[in-house]
Recover the amino acids of this structure.
């Protein structure tokens, strides 16, 4: 496995894997076993690592690499064949339907930029906080009919596109509609949980719960362009990510960790990346509001995910040969 192309870095990853910090433990395991990361990408990452390569410096280097080589590039490393050709997916025909889970609460910068040019966003808070964003979205969306909701979502998608043209914010995460369809009528926290999107709601402000508004966008593989199997480099410093088993079929993409407390269906959801695109109003499929957390104990969720990977890939391969069970316990 290429790992991080740095002996000192690998030593710290082992220390993280064996330590008591849950997030560092997860990141250590992920990076040690992420065989999807090519030697070429590891070599680029190594340029961000200082000669001393102390643990704190390694974490900073990882975050800087993600910001500069993935998040803010029009041509991020994940889309370049000479760096990431082993993860470019060509198995799906253009009409293949995809689904994206978009959390509106995370678009504060987009709404802020739109205040001066679109009256829909005129009263978005000038100093947005999580509770203020939640209250503003409630004001705009609670009790609205379908036409008004569609008008609001169309305006959001338009402003996202306007910001996309100013600066990149990669990548987009997506899954196959045919795999997600059994979840469409579940509450929105399940949409997030099933795709590994964690959220811990803050305490109610003045007795009012803080909610999240979540939109499902349905579009096609042709509209998305090149689909990519994700690596930890693309997920950033995100401990809820989990690498794909060594030797797994690239057409399956990755598999998100289901963060829900309930026992999920037997099948593993696939996950893919693609570049930012222009989402059309007719991509809107459904919207939901939740005050419930989208999370559960991460070590347990990762351990169960590891078991589910093994069950899914037997008898073709034994995932424990790639990543021993003790790594997630």
């Amino acid at each position: 496995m290429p790992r991080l192309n740095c002996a000192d870095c690998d030593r710290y990853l082992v220390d993280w894997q064996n330590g008591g910090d849950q997030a560092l433990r997860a990141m250590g395991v992920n990076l040690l076993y992420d065989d999807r990361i090519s030697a070429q990408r590891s070599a680029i990452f190594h340029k961000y690592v200082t000669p001393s390569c102390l643990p704190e410096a390694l974490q900073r280097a990882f975050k800087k690499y993600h910001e500069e080589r993935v998040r803010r590039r029009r041509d991020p490393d994940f889309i370049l064949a000479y760096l990431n050709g082993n993860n470019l997916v060509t198995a799906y025909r253009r009409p293949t339907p995809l689904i994206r889970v978009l959390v509106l609460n995370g678009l504060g910068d987009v709404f802020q930029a739109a205040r001066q040019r679109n009256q829909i966003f005129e009263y978005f808070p000038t100093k947005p906080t999580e509770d203020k964003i939640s209250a503003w979205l409630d004001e705009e969306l609670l009790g609205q009919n379908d036409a008004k909701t569609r008008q609001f979502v169309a305006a959001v998608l338009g402003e996202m596109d306007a910001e996309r043209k100013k600066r990149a914010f990669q990548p987009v995460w997506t899954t196959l509609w045919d795999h997600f369809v059994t979840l469409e009528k579940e509450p929105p926290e399940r949409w997030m949980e099933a795709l590994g999107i964690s959220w811990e709601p803050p305490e109610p402000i003045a007795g009012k719960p803080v909610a999240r508004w979540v939109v499902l966008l349905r579009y096609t593989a042709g509209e998305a362009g090149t689909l990519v199997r994700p690596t930890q480099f693309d997920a950033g410093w995100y401990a809820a990510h989990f690498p794909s088993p060594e030797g797994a079929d690239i057409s399956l993409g990755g598999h998100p960790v289901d963060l829900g407390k309930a026992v999920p269906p037997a099948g593993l959801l696939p996950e893919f990346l693609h570049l930012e695109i222009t989402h059309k109003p007719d991509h809107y499929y459904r919207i939901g509001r939740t005050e419930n957390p989208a999370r559960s104990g991460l070590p347990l969720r990762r351990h169960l995910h590891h078991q589910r990977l093994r069950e899914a890939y037997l008898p073709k391969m034994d995932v424990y040969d790639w990543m021993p069970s003790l790594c997630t316990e």
User: Anything to note?
Assistant: The mean pLDDT is 91.
